[in-house]
Amino acid sequence: MDLSYILNQLGEEDRERHRGAVAPPVYQTSIFAFPTVAAMREGFRDELDRTVYTRGNNPTVEVLRKKLAALEGAEDALLFGSGAAAIAAGVIACVAAGDHVVCVQKPYSWTRTLLRELLGKFGVTHSFVDATSVAKVEAALTPRTRLIVLESPNTMTFEQQDLAAVAQLARGHGLRTLVDNSYATPLHQQPIALGIDLVAHSATKYLNGHSDVVAGALCGSKALIREVFKGPYMTLGAMLSPHDAWLMIRGLRTLPLRMQRIAATTARVVAFLRDHPKVQRLWYPQAGGVGQGGGVDQLQGNSGLLSIALRCDSTSGVERFCDALQRFLMTVSWGGYESLCFPVAAVYPAQTPVGEERPGQVPVNVVRLSVGLEEPEVLIADLSQALERV
Question: Is 0.90 topped by the overall pTM?
């Protein structure tokens, strides 16, 4: 993968055409004019690849589409106003009333809401399964199953699924597959090369990396992306704005450097937390290691997202720890340049008793940490003083 070319040139960054501008221009326009009726008619024949209305295609957004598709090894990509919108569009394009979806257990909260509440109203059923076992995925299939939804690594506790094996299973049954690849980024995992059909990203996270854009991406074959475009993308109108696309192009240019720095710092943070007496358990998937799916070796690099279970008897210990942190900002998201924390107890105060694990649930003594670009010594010192409050 020629990262330098993809990040800095690919996507029709025609600098001669734009007076030598190094950064591509922002086409901040809602509509595009046509010289004749015939030209307008021709534009309507292919709104995915032509400029008619920014709700469909926009030159600035198109630059980003081409970059993300190349990074994922995909033929095409679509950009959305959020990761939730990207996942929803991918799922909706693959199912109809009466169909069934198999989904990894403990998914991203809005993926769970999509399946349980929204699609459930239209007769689409679902099963949440421990997808680290391909056998359990297969056992959950029904004659009405049309789609398998994965997250590898999984939300909060980062279990990996054997993407190649699940993709092979799906193809054997004529099913489609979708995986959320936000954690790994295309630098560290390429699901399409493993046989997955659609790859989704909460581009708000590492792909943008500056905590100033909410965005989503969906990558796949030209035919499948066109199917999504003609259906939920154009119908629901959850597109990314040209200015946000421009900000994301800026963020992508530093993605390799940011991920390298984050991985190096996270290695030191993990080493500190792993044997700390106040840490009951640590979840952090290692690149090159064996995943919980059995023989899975998919991650080609390490990320900065991890979770810890604190050794405490009540959620008050979690609150003391999080309230004491000074360098880790408490937020719902992750993947920015700054270090962040998210306590499960803030959102799910009665989900699971402290220290107790139940299938498909996350214990309330778990805190997710997202390591940013600060110096490792500063972050370790902050964690050390906060852990003394537990």
Answer: yes
